Amino acid sequence: MNLTSPIFQDADKAREHLEALRWPQGPICPHCGVVDDATGLKGKAHRPGLYQCNACREQFTVTVKTVFEKSKIPLNKWLLATFLMSSSKKGISAHQIGRTLGVTYKTAWFMCHRIREAMTETNPGALGGEGKTVEADTTYVGGKEANKHKSKRNSKNIGGMGKQIVHTLVERNGRARSHHIANITGATLRPLVFTNVHRSSNLMTDTAGGYMRLGKEFARHEMVDHGRDEYVRGDAHSNTVEGYFSVLKRGVYGTFHHVSAAHLGRYLAEFDFRYSNRSALGVNDAMRTDEALRMIGGKRLTYRRTNEGAHA
Q1: Where do the structural domains in the chain lie, given as residue ranges?
Q2: Model-level pTM?
Q3: 74: which DSSP letter?
Q4: How many whole angstroms separate alpha carbon 264 and alpha carbon 113?
């Protein structure tokens, strides 16, 4: 898949590609859920790709009840934007998306947030499992001193542009899951780790106080003391999650320059998605894009809801 692909140039080709991805067993009615029992409506009175469900008699297209619903932007441009975001390791700015697609910055910004909404996991399962290792760590993003003073317990939010705390769990040779958190106390970290990591996992952390007691609940818990310049002790380390942070920060500072606190969670979902579907796991750009397109269903994001915070 490349930028000259027909699905990025022609709206009908894009629709056909999306239908094949979302409806491998035939059209699925988004209103009643019936599979492959719909009639394609033809003729000048009907737009291409319009179906009528034979069970509930409702009409629908492949974009109904998805993040693409009610958009006037041609579907091929949606697919191209999804490809660009899925294939850019450190992200791509809304300004660049706008120039590439020939749309305004405002439109591109909204498109990017809709696609990030699609990339967000729905009902995610626990990371790790028996014999698997999960690393947990926190970092700061935003502000002029984002990489310093990591030991401070609370983020500084100056005009919405200050340091924000990101907590990330990375399954070695697996997925990543990040959260925007208010502090790194045990009260915050305990439910976060317990909810997202299987108890039979090996847990690797640093010596932050929030991890001390919760580690006893896992099959094995190892901590490395960065304060004493200890970074690796056998297989005990948090280098995998640190590698994730390096990509995240290069994206935030080098590509986006500023990410508001209101939207940080959506950007984290984007970086998590690319990491969890990376080439090292056998997922190429085309496969990653198709996976993002499969995830558009059941999600809606209006401009008003997206605009609840500063543009980023």
Answers
A1: 133-262
A2: 0.90
A3: -
A4: 11
